[in-house]
Amino acid sequence: MIVSSRIKTAILQQLKKYRKPIFFFVLAALILPEITVYFNPNNNRGRDILGYIAAGHDALKLGELYKFSETNTWPPFFSFFSVPLALCNDLLGLVPTKLLWYFVNFTAFVLSMKIMMLMLCKKKPAFFPGNGFDFTSDLIVVPFLLVLPPFIATFYWLQINMIILLLITSGLYFHDHQKDWKAGFFFGLAASIKAYPGLFLIYFLLRKQWKTSISTLLWSIAFTVSPVLFYGFNKFIALMNEWISMSLLKPLGPDFVTPYNQSLYAFWERLLVHQLHIVETAPSIFVTIANYCSIALIAIISFSTILRVPHKRASVSGLIEFSIICIMMILFPPIAWRHYWALLLPATVSIYYCFRTFPGIITPLVRYLLAVYTFLIWIAYILSSVIGEFSKIYSFYTISALALLAILLILHKNYSLQQSNS
User: Fold this and answer.
1) Quick one: angle between helices 345-357 and 161-176, nearest 10?
2) Residues 6 or more apart whose Cβ sits within 8 Å of residue 233
3) Most distant CA pair in the chain, distance
4) What is the pLDDT of residues 119-136, one digit of tens each?
5) CA 55, 56, 58, 59 torsion: positive or negative?
6) How many angstroms from the chain centroid is the CA of residue 117?
7) Dihedral angle at the C-alpha atoms of 103, 105, 109, 114, nearest 10 degrees?
8) Cα Rg of the chain, angstroms
9) Which of 80, 118, 292, 383 has the highest count of CB atoms within 10 angstroms of its CB?
């Protein structure tokens, strides 16, 4: 026992001593293969960027955004946001555009992490190893590892998730520093691109943060209606009606319940129709009712927990509340692909920070739920494709997000009690 203890201590000392080069070696091992594969223009990886480029081309031509596109399900403003990608593809070609988009998203991840660490630790981590706080800190590495599978999926498909994360974390940063119009700019821009970040507007309204609410609303309207400058009023209204009909009013078809979709709607569809056989056909009104009831229940429980304590800017509870809205933003839409779970990074950051800094608020239930979340996220990534398919069919990602949401609600309550008693 003494020998094994000494060996363990020696190994831990060596890992701590060389943690920085080990971290950057692992980081390079993850990133470099992802980058080099894009030099093959026919490779399947990064194909989601093709939809962004096509949307940008449609905007440049001031043509139809939805009628002839199978991939464009975004608000009209998104197509104009994608114009730089379309121009880059025309000028440089597909492979350089993929690489540039890759680095833009990776930079967005680094900046997002810097902002969250600045809010929690009151100092920015250096990306490259130095004498102080850097990206090899466990406060960064552990939360990163907790979302690594969806993080890799985000870069595999060249998704926009990291840019959305940067926009909303920037909005929170400026809100914490009482720069409400700047905060509204970033929240409004995110909502105009992807729509569901608009949940932050509801959060600020319920929190009676009137300046940030008004700013977010005005910027959202400004960005959303900006295509009217190019299309004219009548054609823009037609585009908005087409998008609303397609996104909100059109019956949800079989594409919405593919195993890759891990939204609440897809969860109820698979459970009620294909697993319990309570409902014979899809789409069904019973699935829709179950979906809306679960959304309402989650929203009521979450907001009632949040609103029990006064709002405090630049606080741990503020980041926890921010993380709760991020989870709603993932689960509530009818489509939630697995790479959306990269947006759980604020949640894992705030949870691990509480583990490190406030161990008194960590209950056995929190530890159990975190173990459940970690198992569900990693099981499909490290085991066989059969297990992977099983995990998707039985909504492992959906359940993992709900587990993380429960952790955040418990931590928010316990942290508030601890602060009030201290």
Assistant:
1) 50
2) none
3) 80
4) 988 888 877 666 667 777
5) positive
6) 17
7) 70
8) 22
9) 80
